[in-house]
Amino acid sequence: KYYRIVNASYGSVINENWGEGTVSCIAKNEAELSQVWQYTAAGALKNVYTGKYLQDQSNMSTTFVTGTAAQPVTFTKKSDGHLTIATLNTHYLHCDGARNVVYWWDAETEPSHWTVEEVSLTADEIAAAQEEYETLTSLTKNASKYTEALTIFFTNELCTELKAEYAAMADDALKAAMAE
Fold this sequence. Notes:
By secondary structure, this protein is of the alpha+beta class. 24% of the residues lie in helices and 28% in strands.
């Protein structure tokens, strides 16, 4: 099963900022699978978009991050029906004023309270999202390579004007030159 985790105080949802590997609370967006989490058999929270797990945060008021190791989390139901979520049983997830999900010592404050909403996803939707993530990660990692390659063909950084030797080429010849 897959879930969005909603902060009881702000109504925002836990999101993995995939480019940074940090966790924040942002407005719910049905199209963003970086806001969807799976509670695994190992008791860990795994982000559906990136496949990364919520990691323990041992420093107070420091933003939680994601990583490749599955680390267990504990859900505890409060008397008001809300949940607290903790790593190592006492490192509570808390949505701070800047909307970061940080380690907090107190489970009694409302920004440390959560609800969960089940999300229906197909295997194809998950596979497409993970493929998109891999593509974006590759583009980000290789940005300088692509930028360098584009300087071969264009006169400016906006890539709006081809260099003279390429501007004179027919479309098929230009495509062939770019494919090399």
